Amino acid sequence: MDKIKxxxxxxxxxxxxxxxxxxxxDSNRLSLVVILWxxxxxxxxxxxNTAGVFTVSKLRMNIVAISGLIEFGIPIVLYFxxxxxxxxxxxxxxxxxxxxxxxxxxxxxxxxxxxxxFPVLLSSRYFSKGFTTMISILxxxxxxxxxxxxxxxxxxxxxxxxxxxxxxxxxxxxxxRSSVLALxxxxxxxxxxxxxNGLLPRLLVLxxxxxxxxxxxxxxxxxxxxxxxxxxxxxxxxxxxxxxxxIQNGMVPNIFPAFPGRxxxxxxxxxxxxxxxxxxxxxxxxIDDRHLAMIIADVSGKGVPAALFMxxxxxxxxxxxxxxxxxxxxxxxxxxxxxxxxxxxxxxTLWLGILDLDTGKVVAANAGHEYPAICKNGGEFxxxxxxxxxxxxxxxxxxxxxxEFTLGKGDALFLYTDGIPEATNAAExxxxxxxxxxALNINAGAAVxxxxxxxxxxVDDFVSDAEQFDDLTMLCLRYNGNE
Length: 483
Hints:
- This protein is α+β, with helices and mostly antiparallel strands.
- The chain is built from 12 helices and 10 strands.
- Helix 2 packs antiparallel against helix 3 (58-81), helix 2 (14-50) packs antiparallel against helix 5 (117-124) and helix 11 (432-440) packs across helix 12 (448-463).
């Protein structure tokens, strides 16, 4: 008994049980529709036979019609009682449908063999190989029995017999055996002809359909299990990416105002990744009470690899900056450390500046990153075309150079990654640095947060419905001076 239950088992895990139960409900609903259509066929055939269109014995047709309506009615009633959701309902629905279809086959023309395929095809919709196999075997047995019944009732197609002489007339009233004898055909020869020309072709066609249905049932079952496995793997990956997103967001300063106790400057930053995680990063922190470090960087590539490389680069840069030294010295150290173990051959562009909060002097170094933009108090933003060094991670032993500029009271500094100038609209046109500068100058004297908002809104309006291609990161600082 356990082996039988195992053979008919549909789902193989708790995760797929709900899916298969819903599938059985949908299949039961489809079976109900087919049963109603077959019932309509039976009623129409009954009416036409009563009207004399068909020549089946009225008594036999009445018996078949009444019993068929009962057989059709049982699964219909059970379906509505149990609302189509009982697991054993499929056995009643498909089996009763098969019995009723067999009766239709025995009283109508031999072409009604097509109706015998309905239960088999329906059984495959339940995605149970065992159930479909059972229905397939029963369908072959019932077809054989139905064919014998048609012979017994005397429903005969003369195409099954050897060619008759021209002018042969036969009156079939007393059953097939008497009719065949009246033709002068040998009983043995007639029986062989009926099996070869009638029953075997029907069994062959039905058997092929049965094997196809069994394959469909098994394939459907395996497909659901495979989809469930993929869905669970996707859900796990999504959960991991969400965790990675939280970790990455926690790696950069994201609480503003960042230094509410410091009046010498205002700073704000924003990062919008193209995927769940990205390769851009920014950072700012006090090296000591007088010096503020500002970093913005863009790792090659996107997604998880870029995010991992980003975190390694950020930690190295942050830790080395806290140890002291000029921006060039810091970049020299970070580049050598990354190049010493960079099998992925990735690189990062990085701008690092250290602001003296007392004097406004900024000492900076640029490792292949975008030009910063500076706005003098009361003026407009302009690009500062500083000297670029080689990107970090490309070649060990590279020497970077410092350069200086001074921020006066009220001056602003804007840093960004290439996700802003390279933002692309549907026409494959890039946003560009000119539009970026125009966006900065919409209100150059605004609060640093509002300046970033103006740039982001301008990029969004330009890109419109086009998909974000690259990470977009920006940072803005306004120097207030040291009173």
